[in-house]
Every structure is written in C-alpha cells, then in structure tokens.
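Curious: can you check?
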Amino acid sequence: TRVLNTTSGLEVLHGDEVTLAEALKPAGYVSGCFGKWHNGANHPSTARGQGFDEFFGFHGGFFSNYFDPALEHDGVTAVRKGFITDVIADAAMAFIEKHRSQPFFCYVPFNACHSPMQAPADLFAKYSALGFEPKTAAVYAMVENLDTNLGRMLAKLDALGLAENTIVMFTTDNGPNTARFNGGMRGAKGTQYQGGTRVPSFWR
C-alpha cells in the first residue's frame, strides 16, 4: 500500500491501491465507512475516493473531543450530539437498514480506544470505583461502551433478519498504548513484540 508511518503524509494510501470496497463494487455491493479514516484526507486517498459510497466520520489518526463531535458526512461537517462511539454506531446501523435488501459492506473503524481517553461519565465512575487510576478507568469504560455498541449492531442484524447471511468480522489494530493488562505479552503499541502486534480476530 506504500503506507510507511502514521504521520507526516506517510499514512496516505496511494490512489491506485484497490480496497475491499472497490473490489466488491463489480459484484453489486454498496459500501459505507463509518468512523476513523487514517489513510488520507484528500482525494483520491479518502474513503469516498477509495470506493466507499458513503463516509461518516473523520480523516486522521485521532479525534480531540469524543463528546458532541463535529463529524463529516459525505463532505458536510456538522456537530453530532452524543458520545462519538454511539454516534458512529447509529450511522452504521442506519446504513445497514437502508441497504438491507442489497449486498452491502459496512466498515466501522471506531476510534475507541484511543487517546484522548474520554468516556461516558457513568461508565468512568464504575471503573473508578473499582480502584483503577483515571486513565485505565477511562480505557475500560471506553471498552464497555464499544462492546455495548457492537451488541447493538449485532441486534440490528438480527432484527432485520440479516444475521444468517452477513459475515461479521471484529479485529483491532494494535496492542494497548498504556501500561495495563496485556495477557502477559511483552511490549505494547508501537513495538514489534506480541504485546504490540497480536490482536483479536473474531469472525461470525
């Protein structure tokens, strides 16, 4: 892909690369990307430039405020009320419902869990009460919120009668970026050790 780094323009996906969205288009698929697109902010390296019919989210490596975020929807940026993970999941579910009668590819790269560590107040209080220091409490709160939203999306597939005919894949991109539970593995994000590169991959 010629992507070499996460900054300095070296994260840009070259326009002639073929994405899954582009590969599925001849088969009649409609594709949507909801969340973080960290492969270029200018055409043809944007999600829309790389084959996605709909884009909702932001271009770049991180987002500075997870509450009432200003997110782009097909070129128009506006403030969306709520916590960013909830907002992204809502948009993805709307896409699934809209295209329920045709083949679709719904790519949902949530930005959680990523700095800045921000989480809904009730979940943050829950993990703080368990004795975790603030950053770790925020991370675990973000994980629970993410898990809840994944559950909402799976329930949407069930409600629309699509679960038996839809491949669902869940994975992450790297190990934790702070010192916390890591399955006993060496290293973390930014290292080549298993603690930085070994991630879950669940398929249904």
About this structure: DSSP finds five helices and seven strands in the chain. The beta strands are 30-37, 54-59, 70-73, 76-79, 104-107, 169-171, 201-203. The first helix runs from residue 20 to 24.
